[in-house]
Specification:
The chain is mostly beta strands and 222 residues long. The chain has one domain: Lipoprotein localisation LolA/LolB/LppX (outer membrane lipoprotein receptor (LolB), chain A), CATH 2.50.20. 14% of the residues lie in helices and 48% in strands. A 14-stranded mixed beta sheet has the order 7-8-9-10-11-12-13-1-2-3-4-5-6-14. A hairpin with a 5-residue loop joins strand 5 and strand 6. Helix 2 runs parallel beside helix 4. The longest helix has 9 residues.
């Protein structure tokens, strides 16, 4: 199982993601159209039942912009993407980390340092940096990733479609972060050429600027 080679070969990913679960006291359910490009670019659009998207979050490196286009448009500029994503969903992960988890890489550049076989037939692989992969035997000389641990998160991969996860469950292991989300991925495409414009958003004139604190209050009351 050539983990590092397979993960670093994925330059871009696009997918539709169905989300369900909870973040704190807030129940989350909806669909997101997502695009990622190495090293750290991301676009997430929250699909609404009708009309404009519920939100558009774009990021390049450490700089992100969130547009809330419905009703009275609002915009949050210049905050780290992981902080905006944390305020929206409770999942405070940078674009490269989120891409890694959704594609089954777990971390952006996995480097195995140790491996063990267990009595139940499963195997575990320790990665540089402290993450751990748990693999189940699958057919003759084959393995499938079923779970992982990384800083602050426990991840389950109950279903796969080809080389990519079909379902990802993400649970926080931090006592002050109560998150349990399941993502169902479909229409996954990799290594398409994505234009730079995909990671930018046109902010309408008159959009009201908001802060991260404003966003947290808005999400907690909606």
């Amino acid at each position: 199982m050539q983990i590092a080679a397979a993960c670093t070969s994925v330059r871009t990913v696009t997918a539709e993601i169905g989300m369900s679960g909870r973040a704190g006291r807030q129940k989350l359910r909806g669909r997101v159209v997502a695009g990622f490009a190495r090293p750290a670019s991301m676009r997430l659009e929250g699909v609404a039942p009708f009309g404009p998207p519920a939100f558009i979050l774009v990021a390049r490196g450490e700089n992100a912009t969130l547009l809330l286009p419905r009703d009275e448009p609002r915009v949050l500029r210049g905050a780290p993407p992981e902080d905006i994503l944390g305020a929206l969903t409770g999942v405070a992960l940078a674009p490269a980390d989120l891409q890694a988890i959704l594609t089954g890489c777990v971390v952006p550049a996995p480097q195995p340092v140790d491996a063990r076989r267990h009595a139940n037939g499963w195997a575990s692989i320790e990665l540089f940096g402290g993450s751990t992969l748990y693999l189940q035997p699958a057919g003759q000389n084959g393995w499938v990733l079923r779970a992982a641990k990384r800083d602050g998160w426990q991840i389950e991969y109950p279903a796969w479609s080809g080389n990519f996860p079909q379902t990802v469950r993400l649970q926080s292991t931090q006592p002050n972060v109560n998150v349990d989300l399941t993502a169902t991925l479909s229409q996954v495409e990799t290594n398409k050429d994505l234009e730079e414009a995909a990671f930018a958003v046109t902010v309408p004139p008159g959009a009201a600027p908001i802060t991260l604190d404003d966003l947290r209050i808005y999400e907690s009351t909606n």
